[in-house]
Design brief:
- The chain contains 13 helices and eleven strands.
- It has helices at 23-33, 50-55, 75-85, 97-100, 110-121, 146-163, 192-197, 200-212, 230-248, 270-282, 303-321, 371-382, 393-399; strands at 12-13, 60-65, 88-91, 106-107, 125-133, 170-175, 217-222, 255-258, 261-263, 286-295, 329-332.
- Strands 2-3-5-6-7-8-10-11 form an eight-stranded parallel beta barrel, surrounded by six helices. A two-stranded antiparallel sheet has the order 1-4.
- Helix 6 (146-163) links the parallel strand 5 and strand 6.
- Helix 10 (270-282) packs parallel to helix 11 and helix 11 runs parallel beside helix 12 (371-382).
- The longest helix is centred in the middle third of the chain and has 19 residues, at 230-248.
- The radius of gyration is 20 Å and the shape is globular.
- The relative contact order is 0.14.
- Bound molecules: (3S,4R)-3-hydroxy-2-oxopiperidin-4-yl beta-D-xylopyranoside.
- (3S,4R)-3-hydroxy-2-oxopiperidin-4-yl beta-D-xylopyranoside (XIL) binds next to loops.
- (3S,4R)-3-hydroxy-2-oxopiperidin-4-yl beta-D-xylopyranoside binds at residues 4, 92-93, 136, 175-176, 223, 259, 291, 341, 344.
Length: 400
């Protein structure tokens, strides 16, 4: 799997896989987490920005952010868009296992440290993405034994949450556990964690994360639940069943993240999807939109027509789904077409048949606003205000 984290400059050897964490170290971490939670939401948001329009409705708005973009010629413009339009940022790459742990006894915190520093310098809240994911894993994890995977899971969560304790309001503790094509019971994704530990890896990860970060929102994040086709139906059913099984065992899951990578080639029925969101809310979980973008690979026509169609899909999705005031945050997967994962030729399905670049986001490749920006802004003005919820950073910002 390709590792996009540039600048692997300083690597520290760690006593990672192979050495058990002491009970004392574990208790120290848990104790120091109490009361260490720091508020990271910003004090002021421009009322005409996407974050400002969202905050006026009690919704936290943001996007994924990749620190290596700061080193490219467009770095300052990139940063400026996040300062202006976002209240929270999600870590796109720097916290993933393949980036943090490129080799068994190596851990590279440089990109993640820069990510957290950018958030702190600019008063942005952080969604930590992601602790445990059975995809995008470094090759060396694929041959580990059961005990080694068990140790990796524990050591990884402890190491990351200890280092960034109190600095993220939300953690994606488990990402994308569902993958029907792997043909496992419950449609669970195959990978080092599920493969060695079975479904229990999910409970282990959440329980440990809760001990270290009692105040952060712990989220299970899932993809492909949105489409009105057989694939979407299987994902929706499998995710709901998984959450029920976990909650029945008392696993401390606070929220479910729905990624919402929309694709123009798929059919949608957003009213039906909104009903699904309501079902998830009935479980007592927060529901958040975590990775919204619109892959326009199937749209033909001029750039203006494509932009209009993408904008229309954003508009329909947001006005329908965010009509439910319980959804407390909306995060896009990047802000600009220049930095979208769809600009990466190595990503499956990223390229259009006509060879032109996808136009999935509110800013174009030159960081100019597109119709999608206006569609998102208009939708944010139309949606109802959220009820003030504990831990809802946007409501807190508005109240100040
Ligand atoms: C993607 C990044 O955008 C890519 O740059 C990287 O190569 C692979 O991961 N679902 C997720 C995200 O949860 O972490 C993925 O991000 C996109 C799909």
């Amino acid at each position: 799997m390709r590792d996009k984290s540039q600048n692997l400059t300083r690597r520290a050897a760690i006593t990672g896989t192979g050495s058990a964490l002491s009970v004392a170290a574990f208790s120290r971490l848990s104790a120091s987490a109490q009361g260490a939670q720091k508020k990271t939401d910003r004090n002021q948001v421009d009322s005409k920005s996407l974050a400002g329009l969202a905050a006026a409705k009690g919704l936290a708005f943001g996007a994924s952010f990749a620190v290596h973009e700061l080193d490219r010629p467009h770095g300052e413009r990139y940063a400026e868009i996040y300062r202006h339009d976002c209240q929270v940022i999600a870590s796109e790459l720097c916290l993933k296992l393949a980036v943090l742990r490129p080799a068994p006894h190596v851990i590279d915190f440089d990109p993640a440290d820069r990510f957290f520093a950018f958030a702190a310098e600019n008063g942005l809240g952080v969604h930590g993405h992601t602790l445990i994911w059975d995809d995008y894993v470094p090759d060396w994890t694929k041959t580990l034994s059961r005990d080694e995977v068990d140790h990796l899971l524990n050591a990884h969560i402890l190491t990351v949450l200890e280092r960034y304790q109190g600095k993220a309001e939300t953690w994606d503790v488990v990402n994308e556990p569902i993958a029907p094509w792997d043909k496992n019971p419950g449609n669970l994704r195959q990978g080092p964690f599920y493969g060695r530990l079975g479904e229990d890896y999910i409970a282990k990860a959440f329980r440990l994360a809760r001990q270290i970060e009692p105040n952060a929102k712990l989220r299970l994040n899932e993809a492909q639940t949105e489409s009105a086709d057989e694939n979407g139906a299987v994902f929706r059913k499998s995710l709901l069943a998984l959450l029920k099984r976990q909650l029945d065992q008392g696993v401390p899951i606070d929220a479910v993240g729905l990624q919402c990578h929309l694709q123009t080639k798929r059919p949608y029925d957003f009213e039906q999807f909104a009903d699904y969101v309501a079902e998830l809310l009935e479980l007592g979980l927060d529901v958040e939109i975590t990775e919204l973008d619109v892959n326009d690979n199937a749209y033909t026509g001029s750039l203006a027509q494509r932009d209009q169609q993408v904008a229309a899909l954003y508009s329909k999705f947001l006005t329908t789904v965010l009509a439910n005031p319980a959804i407390s945050s909306l995060v896009l997967w990047q802000m600009s077409d220049a930095t979208s994962w769809m600009a990466d030729p190595n990503i499956r399905d990223s390229l259009r048949a006509d060879g032109r670049a996808a136009r999935p986001l509110p800013y174009d490749k030159n960081f100019q606003r597109k119709k999608a920006w206006t569609a998102i802004a208009d939708a944010l003005e139309k949606i109802p205000a959220r009820a003030a919820r504990k831990g809802n950073a946007a409501s807190d910002a508005v109240r100040r």
